[in-house]
Amino acid sequence: MVDDNAWPLPQEEREEPFAARRLEGRGAGWSHVGGAILTFCLWQLSVVPLILGATLLGYPGALEMIKNRVNWVDLSPDQDAVAIAACAVLLLSLIVLLLINWLIVKVCHRRSLMSILTAHERFRWRSALVSFAIFAGAMLLVSSTAALLGMGADVQLVFDPRRFFPFLVLVLVLTPFQCLAEEAFVRGYLYQGVAAFTASNILRIVLPAAVFMAMHSANGDFLEGGIWVLLIYFTFGAYFGLLTVKTAGVEVAAGAHAANNIFAFAISTSAGAGMPFATVFYEPEPDYMASFVLILLVAALHYLLFFKIFRNRILS
């Protein structure tokens, strides 16, 4: 029985092994609150040297592209180098988040980075890769089926191999680390912090999902898509949280997250995305309600395939 007046919860009430890893170091639940605020503030400040670096390297227009939410299809070929610099700043800023979070965990909590990644002895790369492959396959299947059936927005082919592949290299190299950074902070550090105050798995999933949604509020589509975009980001956050609870670590969520972001950065984007990544397809008038429905289908298919079919056969 959980004592509602015991807040944060005593150690014996925490049974989930990944949440319990926060007890390996020092600091109670409130230290996670302060650590999260400090991490977020330092992360915001870290963008400044990245912008200065891009400027010193000869790409002063990168900041304007980010501020004005420029889309790649609106750029000319001679602007691609600046667009790549802007994309690099966007991705590197999240990788810096991982470094900051690691320092907070190490210095303030006296724990290892692994403690906010998994409850297991080592990071489960195979689980992450299988999750990535299944989620990518589910996205391709659902999106192609929707296109064949005429569901969702009209899609234009904008593939230009001479312009596309430099962006693709950047995406493939940095996106997995960017997604791992978000998962480590939201589904790792914040999840463990919430677990200090409640034994409810629903709250452990929902509260970090709300933070995840808020972290993406600067995205262009967040401003244009209304309630449907809110639901899209919250659903992603909640689903990744569910994966974290079920697998006692962020590996499976990070794999799915990376598949989604690589798809968004390299395969198909929309007018509302506001990020200058070169893609294969483009939606000039995105249908956010249809996108929300398709995301639910992708998540359901990923869950079914990972937990009911492939997990025992491949990961046992």
What does this structure look like?
The protein has about 325 residues and is mainly alpha-helical. It has one domain (about 15-315). It has helices at about 15-20, 30-55, 60-65, 80-110, 125-150, 160-195, 200-215, 220-225, 225-245, 250-265, 290-315, and strands at about 155, 270, 280-285. The protein has a 3-stranded mixed beta sheet with strand order 1-3-2. Helix 6 packs across helix 7. The two termini are about 35 Å apart. Mean pLDDT is about 85; it is low at about 1-15.
Task: Provide a concise account of the structure shown.
With 316 residues, the chain is mainly α.
Name a few traits of the molecule.
disordered N terminus, 316 residues, globular
- Summed up, the domain count is 1
Determine the fraction of residues in helical runs and give it as a percent range: 55-70%
Rg (C-alpha, Å): 20 Å
User: How much is the average pLDDT?
Assistant: 87
Tell me about the largest β-sheet.
Answer: 3 strands, mixed
Class from secondary-structure proportions:
mainly alpha
User: SSE string, helix = H, strand = E?
Assistant: HHHHHEHHHHHEEH
Please tally the β strands and state the result.
Answer: 3
How are strands sequenced across the largest beta sheet?
1-3-2
Q: In DSSP terms, counting alpha (H) and pi (I) runs of 4 or more, how many helices? A: 11
Q: Please report which band the strand proportion falls in: under 5%, 5-15%, 15-25%, 25-35%, 35-45% or over 45%.
A: under 5%
The 3D shape can be described as globular
Low-confidence stretches: 1-14
Through-space gap between termini = 33 Å
